[in-house]
Amino acid sequence: MDYLVNVKIKWQQLIIGSALLIMGFGLLSLFEWTWWALFFTSILAWVVVFGPASKEIFTFPRKFWVIPCAALFYLIFGGVISALTKSIGFDWTSNPATGNLMLLIFKLPFMLMGEELLGIGVLEVAHNKGFSLTISNLISALVFGLMHVFVYWDGSIISTVIHVLLLQGAARLIFNYVYIITGRSIWGSWCTHVLVDLVALSL
């Protein structure tokens, strides 16, 4: 059941919640020692915006088999897109953490939960405000992708935007799909995100 769509959200709550998410993501992106920032600011943002209803997203996921299937699908999709774009001349910047998995292994679960709370938060707020689930998904993917522009900046605004929308934006669509399919459980999208990053960052 979609409990969050019926929560009354005031614009003041939305502004405060958005500011918390932007601050958390900014700190996460700018400083290595603030790897925890988005995790905590996202939790605060959810409490501010959705209040007690926030706990509804922490239910145990249904259709658990969707998680590894979605992770595998994205890894294949991402590999194909990267190969195709490289073949036509794009020189995309890789994740700065690539190859440093062991240094991040204990931080990664918290960092990715912060990203999930952000992405799912945008999805649920958009849906709550009257957008269809499809449009809400696209808004979430657009916001999530564009927030990665500075992380993956390669010197060209066009190349970087194409990069983050095709890879990070597409990833958000898949993670959101898992969240919905598993019964609106953030554990479903989080597990998928963790699996994807464990593989991607170990290469």
TrEMBL record:
Keywords: Hydrolase, Membrane, Protease, Transmembrane, Transmembrane helix
Residue intervals of the CAAX prenyl protease 2/Lysostaphin resistance protein A-like domain: 101-199
A GO term for molecular function: endopeptidase activity
UniProt KW Transmembrane helix keyword: yes
GO BP term, pick one: proteolysis
Pfam family, one: Rce1-like
Highest taxon in the source lineage: Bacteria
Keyword Transmembrane: yes
TM helices/strands, residue ranges: 12-29, 35-53, 65-84, 104-123, 130-151, 157-180
UniProt family annotation: Belongs to the UPF0177 family.
Protein name in the entry: CAAX protease family protein
Organism expressing this protein natively: Enterococcus thailandicus
